[in-house]
Design a protein that fits this description.
alpha/beta, Cytidine Deaminase, domain 2, Rossmann fold, 2 domains, ten-stranded mixed sheet, nine-stranded mixed sheet, elongated
Length: 465
Amino acid sequence: MTPATTLAFGGTLHDQVRTHLFPGDGLEAAGILLCARTPAPRDRLIARRFIPIPHEACSVRHPDALCWPGMYLESAIEEGEEDCLVIILIHAHPGGLFAFSDLDNESDRFTMPALLQAYGARHGTAIMTPSGAIRARLYDASGSPSPVDLVTVAGDDLQFWWHDQTGLAGPNSRPIAFTGGMTTELGRLHAIIIGVSGTGSIEAEQAARLGFGRVTLIDFDRVESKNLNRILNSTTADADTGRLKVEMFADAITQYRGAGVAVPIGTAVDTREAVLAASQGDILFCCVDTLEARYYADLIAAAFLMPLFDTGVVIPVRRNGDQVAIADAVGRIDYVQPGGATLGDRGVYSAELLRAEYLRKVAPGAHAQEVEAGYLKGIVEEAPAVISLNMRAASACMNEFIMRAFPFRLDPNRNFARTRFSLAGGDEDTFSEDDFEVSPNRILGRGAIEPLLGLPALGVRDGSE
């Protein structure tokens, strides 16, 4: 079962919080988190901003006690009220206690009533240990606390801290990759698959069989006969009836996982319905063939602080007169962490490329469009036999997720922000997160604020969802 409440961090913000709370002197420190919300029904808080309480401003700083001036809370209330952000007071536990102490409980009894009277129906508190592990709780309007079931961090590594986990919360407490422990944890997480065609159907199959508790499938397209050689689980009957790819695939997942795991969303990712569905997830996999869809995946990942795994394959050709030959068969896997370099920063798309793609779509000349948009760049091929290439790329993508969520790489995951392989050259290149320049991201941590993703076209219309 997926968690009822979640607090999500981007890696950059989590690093900022940890650096301030643990300056190296062994004393407690504190700060304030301003958190946006995810659209209903998911109760997922998005850590948007951290307000550090200056160490020198604290009247008391001991290894197990802290006192700081209320002016910083007043400033947070003033900043958060406009967008009704949830305020979470977070402090360090230098001794490593991964629980709220009696002193924490006593402090909350004085602090939370005043905070709840300011605005909003709930706010909360959190503690962090030296390993970076976080435990949080929320108080409702009556002042009753309830635990946050899961705290996530999407950084170089993917980190998950569960309220019901026992023992220490250090790096050695993570389940081991490829074991039943990994399967159990995945059973509590929600994967989003954007694009359920050649590569996407393979990634969706892996996500379902690895054990994700829920797998949402987003794709507007229908099964055709030309798809049958590369879309897993598709049949001639599906092609004959023009069945939605997501409905076909959801039924296939149900056959071996049971009801309620697969959620089909039969619309394009640039619709309000698709964005709302994607916002409910924990991990985002993008397997599309248009730049516009990748642009939307970038926006969704940033707004809702979701780790994004993007997969692309291409087969460039070369011509010598009338002769055509394969120049290469290439796969690319990008991991995008909230607050890091986006697909746009990495040159996967640009404003000019998006405009050119749009003009190709609306302008006459379908043949030229097919040549540009297909797997084989320069050839119109109705049913490209690319399932082996798709499987190589899809497997690499899912293993990239596993190596970040259940780390076992010898080198730091930061060195693998992009992986690109060439079948013709027989080589594989990797690129570090530091190889890309990060641009300011206006919607980072935006959450459910309307209009969704900051795009007027995705706003609420006629007062309905």
